[in-house]
Amino acid sequence: MTFFVILGAISFCVFIAMYLDNVLTFNAGKQKLVLVLFLCMFGIIPRNIPQLNIFIVVCLVGLVATIVLTVLHKNMLKSIISAALLMALLFGIEGLTLLTSRLVTYEPDLLLGISIYMAVIAVVFLLALILRKFLEKHVWANILNHKIVQFLLISASVALLLILKNFAIEGVHITLGQWTVDFGDIAFMLFFAASVTMVVIIVRYVSIETALRAEMLLTEASKKYVHDLEESYKALRTIKHDYVNILTSFKLYIDSEDVEGLKRYYYDELTEMNQDLLRQDQLIGSLQDVRLSEIKSILIYKSSVAAQHGIDIEAKDEIDNLGVSTAIVCQILGILLDNAIEAAVVNEGDKKLHIAIIKNPNSKVFVVKNSWKKQVIPISKLYELGFTTKAEGQGLGLFTVRKYTERIKSLYLETEMDDEFFIQTLTVKDD
Amino acid sequence: MLNIYICEDNVKQREFVTTFVTDYCIFRNLDAAVVLASSDPKEILTHYKKSKDPSLFILDIDLGAEINGIELASRIRKQGTKATIAFLTTHSELALLTIQYKVEALDFIIKDSPDNIKRKIAECISTAYERQKEISKSKSIKITVSDKIIHLDIDDIIYIETTQTRHKLRLHTHSRTLEFNGELKAMEEQLDERFVRSHKSYVINKDKITEINKKDNSVTMSNGSLCPISRTGKKLMK
Predict the structure, then answer these.
(1) What is the pTM of this model?
(2) Which of A81, A414, B45, B145 could be disulfide-bonded to A425 (CB atoms 3.0-4.6 Å)?
């Protein structure tokens, strides 16, 4: 018996913990004060006027609260919800108070009743606050996400109601003409409805929380993408700048008709510079059929980083549109290329990086293949948050990629590895 | 037996490759032989259509015929899975990764020095030979990723899981993870009795379980992944 009461009381506290924000949903201190005031008044009224029925009082309080809140806040719906929650809270607390009173004494005493009522409010709110803090900090998402826990919370609340009905509130009736309604029944129904709502709210809260977290991670990744994009434009500008410089030098030699100087400049100085420029040029040239400028610039930037290690880009087909947002594909490509470049550079043997962009009848495919120093890692581990083979770094990249492929229907990622190569194949299905 | 096909339009090179392959198979005592060496891709295709045995194709990319080696390869692929394809090529600047993606080429043999060619061909033969032995033993399943069909050996599959997207599954082998469209239930039916629906969102290969974690109701698979086990799944595992 005691066990059930405790179980019920705890679940009731969890319930209040969930609702704390919703009951006191208005930010302004005034409205909050009104609600607390109602709460306290309710403790006094029914005891002062014993003829008054608890149910009617609660309804009255709810009605008054709704009106007052609407006047104060002008949001009808919010006020009704708040008032309804307040009513549920009152029922629960009243039930607990009555139960405690019965346990303490059988003599109804006004002063004792009020103080027990206040004590119950204080204890419930205190416990609720502590629980809330605890849940938020430790197991909030995990435990409450669990269906079994939610089920337990509901059953415990129901158990409390049953106990209240049988031991405390028995005999509290409302008589409306010929019908007599048992308070316990109504409380039971109300509380049951409240518990169900509670579950809905928990689930929603948890999903919002998770979404927020994912959002944060993605923002982080997008920042990097924007940075990459900026760098790629910078790289392009440098190339342009270099060309203009070379041409200007040519003009100077031509103007002064210094053919010898021109020869020297071309063969001695330019050849070295040319190597780099040519390589860049080839890269850009090989990407001429990629019509999506964001994809192109990310490829140019990333491959110019890897150019000195030998990189091979195959883009024979014309790529002009993708089935999903280009920004997302860019971001994924950026991550895959970063990883590929890093893995290829770390490798002591051959440093090879191949990229292929392929157009299929119904999809576009990006293949990134790099040489690597084989490590014994389960592929599935690669995609976990925080997993990294790098000395420093957050292991965010592939986790972000997985986030996208999990949710976006037309993105498919294949990861393959053998002793020599690590291959990522991203298939983007057309609309 | 492993059938080896050679398609090369240059007579001298064809003879060189054929002689080497024949010698190699005899020398290594392999159950393999050159069944056809030709310059005509159509002849190769017709012959293969009839036999459909496990085969290794050594194809020149530049055939001087109306279809080139890559086209030939993709037609061979359409016939079935049991073919291993290697390309002979003079130019290394071809889009090799693209070809590899499209026809799942085993290797590219660059025609440089005869020694290199021999070494590469030898590698291809032994890979194809090993593969053929495995193929005859086990079943494979067909998986479609948008336009591409991938054949996977059932033995290699460790587990299949669902994703947050409807009808999208993720399959794991030791060296590969791939996402594709499908239903877990349909996959389960295609696989054999080693695979069980251990959880609403998982089909696992019982042979690949390395550890059972009773405490948190999960199993560790041979690739180190944790798979959850539901109550119904637990019953099925017994």
Answers:
(1) 0.57
(2) A414
